[in-house]
Amino acid sequence: QVQLVESGGGLVQAGGSLRLSCAASGNIFSINAMGWYRQAPGKQRELVATITSGGNTDYADSVKGRFAISRDNAKNTVYLQMNSLKPEDTAVYYCNAVGYTVGSIRVGNFWGQGTQVLVSA
User: Fold this and answer.
1) What Å distances lie between residue 104 and 29, 100, 108, CA to CA?
2) Distance between CA atoms of residues 74 and 4, nearest Å
3) Which end of the chain has fewer beta carbons closer than 10 Å to its terminal beta carbon, N or C?
4) Closest Cα to residue 18, out of 30, 8, 6?
């Protein structure tokens, strides 16, 4: 079992910043990548940013230049620094991890419960 716990969400005005954190714990053997997804009201979940264990990053076009993802492999923790926030960034942000639990032979996909980000105009 793997648990992902997000924190750092909240209410912020447009142009402001937030820093999200996600800590993975549990029966982890290895994590290949971690990332952030978001789901706005009435919309499908979408990729925000990902980072591999080697530090390679990928971002949605809508957040490039504004958001930065980082991780601490030793702590199995991923961060999302969100700057220049826009109202369209309003969503529930979900932490994601892809990896293996102890004794597993297939990769798993794990999710946190989500943290709300609300950006006012």
Assistant:
1) 8, 6, 9
2) 15
3) C
4) 8
